[in-house]
Amino acid sequence: MSPIEQTKIRLPADFETYGEARRAGFLRMKQLKEEGARVVGMFCSFVPTELIYAAGALPVGLCAFTDEPIPAAEANLPRNLCPLIKASYGFALTDTCPYFYFSDFVVGETTCDGKKKMFELMGEIKDTYVMQLPHSRDPAALAFWREQVLAFQRKLEDFYGITITEADIRTAIRRKNRERDVMRCYLELGKLDPAPMSGYEMGTRIDAGSFSFDLEQRCDEVEERTAQALAQWEARKDRGPSSRPRLLVTGCPNAGVREKIIKAVEELGADVVAFDTCNGIREKVELVDESNPDVYDALARKYLNINCSVMSPNDSRRTYIGKMIDEYKVDGVIEIVLQSCHTYDVEAFFIRRFVTQEKGLPYLNIETDYSQADKGQINTRLAAFLETIDK
Ligand code: SF4
Ligand code: SF4
Predict the structure, then answer these.
(1) SS3 for 101?
(2) CA separation (Å) from 17 to 13, 171, 209, 214?
(3) What is the helix, strand, coil percentage profile of the chain, to 5?
(4) Residue 184: which of 16, 324, 331, 329 has the closest Cα?
(5) 49 CB within 6 A, ligand 2
(6) Contact by Cβ (8 Å): 226, 181
(7) What residues contact residue 380 under an 8 Å CB cut-off, 6+ apart?
(8) What per-residue confidence (pLDDT) applies to 232?
(9) CB under 8 Å to 155, separation ≥6 — which residues?
(10) Which residue ranges of the chain lie beneath pLDDT 50?
(11) Predicted pLDDT at 5
(12) CB of 61 closer than 6 A to ligand 2?
């Protein structure tokens, strides 16, 4: 491989870090609550947000991506638990997350063991409704999940004293499908070579957008950035493909480790062009079928197909990663596993084998948490990984 040029990531003037966007959203949320907004806190891509919108409420993501509240959480939770679970519970316990504070109730789901048991503790702090997610995709699981979708609708109706009509749900489905299309077009910019923007910006903008609360405005802003990046790329595409290695990032939610892995590897000279993650394309590839006469079946089918490792078996994740490797012209894969995330950690066996043997590409598995203790070691491993890429 030719020597890799180390560079500082170029970011647009209006770029906000995830922390800045989260803080900027606090005031907006306070104002919305003062105006009487309904707010439902949530933790996972499996929750059908269409129902929250159909209830005239705003969904707000409560997954925590910082290690500050973890020591407090460890007073009640085991230390060897995923940092995302500990941090999310820690924010609730210490009452230091305004989004948790302003949520009327929170909706959890039985995805992984640590999270589903944590919700039992969270229920002592705030009304916590838990959707029972089946872990397979057979007809019995689909029928059960459809009932869970209906039960969540009843929870929203009972909590707010409202009736959610089918028309409300269909409107919400159209709005969310548009959002998926907009975000997918934005993420698919990564198929272009050279990469039109850094993966650091791409992922940050998706995560930070969840703090703007106005779905249509969020879509408009991302569409605008997509068009701008595309125009800039068109203007310089004659320079030909980039010599920088093109990487796919897969695994656990990465917002809490984005600086020390994604930003770091891009500063070492690679481009992260594809994300098989919850803040990437995972939830956006499949729309809710608007033509399905049964809206609950349509929602249940869409959400049950999310290829998260809590599903067993989960072969579709490999199929999709393979497709992304080809379409995004990927040179190597980094899998991020948050410490004690057993489902991704075990499934990594299949991902490594698939990437190295079937696709013939280098694969790096990084197990980490939200601390900075392993930052230097990760940097060394990233640099060594890039040396193995044949480009
Ligand atoms: S990785 Fe799985 S459990 Fe975690 S937020 Fe995404 S869908 Fe939910
Ligand atoms: S990263 Fe893994 S352990 Fe943590 S909440 Fe998600 S699925 Fe559970």
Answers:
(1) helix
(2) 12, 32, 11, 19
(3) 50, 10, 35
(4) 324
(5) no
(6) no
(7) none
(8) 94
(9) 107, 129
(10) none
(11) 65
(12) no
Nearest residue (by CA) to ligand 2, atom 1, is 252
| pLDDT score at 2 | 54
Helix (H) or strand (E) holding 235: helix 215-236
What backbone torsions phi and psi does residue 88 show, to the nearest 5 degrees?
Answer: -65, -45
Q: What is the pLDDT of residues 306-358, one digit of tens each?
A: 999 999 999 999 999 999 999 999 999 999 999 999 999 999 999 999 999 99
Ligand nearest to the CA of 314: 1
Question: What pLDDT, on a 0 to 100 scale, did the predictor assign at position 236?
Answer: 86
Alpha carbons within 13 angstroms on the beta-carbon side of residue 1 total 18
Q: What are the structural domains of the chain?
A: 37-168 (3.40.50.11890), 177-387 (3.40.50.11900)
> What pLDDT shows up at residue 339?
98
Threshold 0.90, pTM exceeds: yes
Q: What is the per-residue burial (b if ≥16 Cβ within 10 Å, else e) of 21-39?
A: bbeebeeebeebbeeeebb
Question: From ligand 2's centre to the CA of 27, what distance in Å?
Answer: 29
